[in-house]
Design a protein that fits this description.
Radius of gyration: 13 Å
Shape: globular
Largest sheet: 7 strands, mixed
Helix content: under 10%
Structural class: mainly beta
Strand content: over 45%
Order of helices and strands: EEEEEEEEEHEE
Number of strands: 11
Length: 128
């Protein structure tokens, strides 16, 4: 059983930054692609960013490209999301997730159905 635990959320003013972390249990973290999704009240869960198992390939939603950076430290079983220049539209619960199988391409990584393990989420609130 894989457990994912997010941390680092909080309240920040527009233009500020936050760094989310996702700690994974088990010995297989380095074998799977990982992703970040977010969900705001009344909206569907949406893709934010993803990273391949090696960390060499990353994908971003257009809404966060140039502001957010996804990275991973396989030796620490940890996934990160550096979020800069935050806006109120970034307010949401942020979830990390592990891909269920080998993903290839943006379409695969951006689809929530391709992920089998999810964290409980961490709240990010950006005030104007």
């Amino acid at each position: 059983q894989v457990q994912l635990v997010e941390s680092g959320g909080g309240l920040v003013q527009a233009g500020g930054s936050l760094r989310l972390s996702c700690a994974a249990s088990g010995r297989t973290f380095s074998l799977y692609g990982m992703g970040w999704f977010r969900q705001s009240p009344g909206k569907e869960r949406e893709f934010v960013a993803a990273i391949s198992w090696t960390g060499s390939v990353t994908y971003y939603a257009d809404s966060v490209k140039g502001r957010f950076t996804i990275s991973r430290a396989n030796a620490k079983n940890t996934l990160y999301l550096q979020m800069n220049n935050l806006t109120p539209e970034d307010t949401a619960v942020y979830y990390c997730a592990r891909t269920a199988r080998s993903c290839s391409g943006y379409g695969c990584y951006a689809s929530s159905s391709q992920y089998d393990y999810w964290g409980q989420g961490t709240q990010v609130t950006v005030s104007s």
